[in-house]
Amino acid sequence: MQIPFRTRVLKSYGADDLSLPELLKYNANPFHCGWLELPLDLPLPAEPHLSIWKSYREEAEQTSVFAVLKRYFIQFQFPILSGISSEVSYRAAVSQGVWPQEGRWPQGLMLEQPEVLKLLIHPSLAGEIPVLIAPHRRDFVSLVQALTRYNEPTTVPNSMGACMVAGFNNWDRIWRMHHAWCELPGENETWKQVWHQILPHKELYQDCFILLSEGSYSGIPAEALDLQPEDWLATSATIRLEHECTHYFTRRLFGSMRNNLFDEFLADYMGILSVSGRYRANWFLQFVGLAEFPAYRLGGRLENYRGKPSLSDPAFAILQALVFDAAHNLEYIEDHDRHTRKLPAFEKLLALSLLTIEELASQEAFRRFEQALSRVANCRQLKPKIDLHFAPHGE
Known about the structure:
Largest sheet: 4 strands, mixed
Number of strands: 4
Order of helices and strands: HHHHHEEHEHHEHHHHHHHH
Structural class: alpha+beta
Shape: globular
C-alpha cells in the first residue's frame, strides 16, 4: 500500500496531524493504470474533432486563422468585458448556441495582432492535436479569457504561457450536425429528441486543443539558464508544446489532467527531455520558483498549483521540499543509470505515472522507479512508430 509509505515519508519531512491529511489528499496519484492490462498502440488515434480543425486550417490559408475562428466560435462574438458572462445574450450564446443580435457587440473579440495568430496540427503520443499559437502576449491573454474564462477580464499569471482547452463546446460542430439532420428525408424525430440522444456523447461536440504563447518559458530569462536569448526562445517554444502534449496524454490514457504539482512535474519532465535529451533538475526548479531552495521565488509557477482548497502554508512548505528532492533524485537516476538513460521518453513517462511525489522524493526513489519501469516493460505494449515527442513543429 502506498499510503503507509507516503505517510512515513511525509512525517520525515515534518508533516503533523494537520498538514499530513492535506498532503496525502493533494499528492494522491489519480492516474488509472488500466492500460497495463491492455495492448497499447501509440500514438493513440485522433479524436473526432480533429477533422473540423483541419478544415479550419485549410480555410485559414485563404484568409487568416483569426478570421476563420471568429466566423465559427461563438465566444469570439463578444468582447473581453467585466460582467459579460452575466449578460442574457452571452449566456444564451455559450449554453444554447444562440448567435448574438447583430449590432449588440459589433466588433466582438479584438486582438492587437490578429494576423500573427497561427494554427498547427501537431503529432503527439495521444494523437494529433490542434495547436493555436498567439505570439503577442496580450492576445494570448485575451484568448485564454475568451476560451476558458467566459470572456471575463480575469488575471492570467505572467508565468502562464500555455493552456489546454478541454471540454470546449464547439457550436460549429453542433450547427453542422443540425444542418445534416435537416437534410434527412422523412425524419420523424424532432431536433430536440435527436439532441438529447447526442448529448451524452461529448466527443461529438466537445473539442480539446492547445493554446500557446511565445516568449520565455515560465517567464524565466535566458541568463538564468546560461543560454542565449534567441536559443532560449526556441527552446521555450518546444518545452511549452511538449508540456501541453503531456497533459493531453495523461487526459486520454490515464483519465486525468489536473491543476496539480505532480502533473506539472511530469509535463516539465517531458518538455525538458525533448530539448535537452536529459533531465535537468535546475531547469525545473527555476520554472517552479525553487532555484534558491529553501527560499521560494514569488511568482514561480508552484504557487499556481496549491489546490482547491489551497494547501496551508506548512503543507506548501513541505511540498516545496518534496519537489526539490524529487527533481534531484530523478536527475540522478537519469544521469547514473545507463539502462534508464537509453529508454524512450514515453516509457519513462508511463513509469513515473505509477508513482507519487513522495516516492520520488524518498531515499527509495531509484528502487521504486525501477519497479515501475518493470511494470511498464511487462505490459503488453506496442512501441510507437516514431518518437513523437521529438517530431518537428508544424508537421
